[in-house]
Amino acid sequence: MMRAIAVQKVVKEAVVKTFSLQEYLLKEEKSLHKNEFYNGQIIPMPSNKARHNEIATNITSAIKVAVRPLPKVFRVFNSDQKIYIEAENVSVYPDAVVVCEAPQFWNGREDLIVNPLLVVEVLSKSTFKYDRGDKFMLYQLMPSFKEYLLIEQNKPCVESWFKSSDTNWNKLLTEDLTQSIHLRSLNVTIPLADIYEHILFPKIK
User: Fold this and answer.
1) What is the rounded CA–CA span in Å between residue 159 and residue 175?
2) At residue 8, does pLDDT exceed 60?
3) Host H or E run for residue 187
4) How confident is the model at residue 167 (pLDDT cuts 50, 70, 90)?
5) Span between the terminal Cα atoms of the chain, in Å
6) Using CA of residue 68, residue 79, residue 145, residue 89, what is the dihedral sign?
7) I want to staple 67 with a disulfide (CB 3.0 to 4.6 A). Which of 74, 78, 87, 112 is the partner?
8) What span, in angstroms and rounded, lies between the C-alpha atoms of 32 and 16?
9) Secondary structure class of 153 (helix, strand, coil)
10) What sections of the chain are H helices per DSSP?
11) How far apart are CA 183 and CA 200, in angstroms?
């Protein structure tokens, strides 16, 4: 009898509970920590450290300032704004997102943007493979998505990807603090020194 109970417990624990998108959104409204949603699975996000947060703030502010004089309106959102990839039923948090003219929301929900133009991710040890791989592939499922910015936090290095055709993405790497990156989807230039303002890099041993 005890063995049967033990087996039932193991089987029960092996079954992973799934959630609907609506259930996730209700939980996320009450959560003290950010979680992403992957077609039924709620995945806790790792907490970020000060350097990561400051770089994310720097790039968000720099883009906001750069696009302000432009005749076309670009809206800039920070890391609290979720993106929803309907094709895969996935909701994720970028470090920053820019939309052209007006944001479009899934089912009118202002917490779920579905028309990102430019997405920014600040790389960390726990997420850099995912940000460069599967997350990039998810973003590419969105027709509005044209440019992807990956920012290292332990050294000056910005990797920008721009969609040049339906199937091709061009990569540009910038690693010199005296240089600037040109965001082609916005037609603005951002100095690397602005992105890394006040950032002290770890010493290389």
Assistant:
1) 9
2) no
3) none
4) confident
5) 59
6) negative
7) 74
8) 22
9) coil
10) 2-14, 21-30, 50-67, 128-132, 134-139, 192-195
11) 25
